[in-house]
Design goal:
Largest sheet: 3 strands, antiparallel
Shape: globular
CATH topology: Nuclear Transport Factor 2, Chain: A
CATH architecture: Roll
CATH class: Alpha Beta
Order of helices and strands: EHEEHHHEEE
Strand order of the largest sheet: 1-2-3
Mean pLDDT: 84
Radius of gyration: 17 Å
Number of helices: 4
Distance between the termini: 31 Å
Structural class: alpha+beta
Low-confidence stretches: 1-13
Helix content: 25-40%
Number of domains: 1
Length: 140
């Protein structure tokens, strides 16, 4: 993740361009280079990566992670849903300074053994709120 400011114009300097690489290393169809995520897509990708990262998973950063995967192996109930919400809010507030969380809601589906996460957040210097909706479920 990098933040770049590329102009001497004060109006343009106040706006940031967020860039991030595609971690699947998919090739761009024309350039044949690794594709990049820009602006809000880069931030959304970063948020999803932080949520899915476990502790001790990143080299030289053992404290970075949410620990959500370990909570997915507990019984599916509202108490664990609240713990998942707290873990996600903590990792985003600590490691993603570009984001301010407006709403975070985990809904437990015990019959399906999964949680539906709905997160609404603001990106710094972007007036539009962004909502992402995804499922958390254990693999094994």
């Amino acid at each position: 993740m990098t933040t770049t400011i590329t102009s001497n114009n004060p109006r343009i300097d106040s706006e940031r361009t967020y860039r991030d690489l595609d971690l699947n290393f998919n090739a761009h169809p024309v350039k044949k280079d690794v594709t990049k995520y820009l602006d809000e897509y880069a931030v959304i990708n970063s948020v999803k990566n932080l949520v899915s990262t476990n502790f001790y998973e990143r080299p030289f950063r053992p404290e970075l992670g949410s620990g959500v995967r370990s909570l997915l192996f507990e019984n599916v109930d509202p108490i664990i849903a609240a713990q998942i919400e707290r873990a996600i809010a903590e990792v985003i507030n600590n490691y993603e300074p570009r984001v301010r969380i407006l709403d975070l809601n985990a809904t437990a589906y015990p019959d399906d053994n999964r949680y539906n996460m709905k997160m609404t957040f603001m990106i710094i210097n972007n007036p539009n709120p962004i909502t992402i909706d995804f499922f958390l479920e254990r693999i094994r």
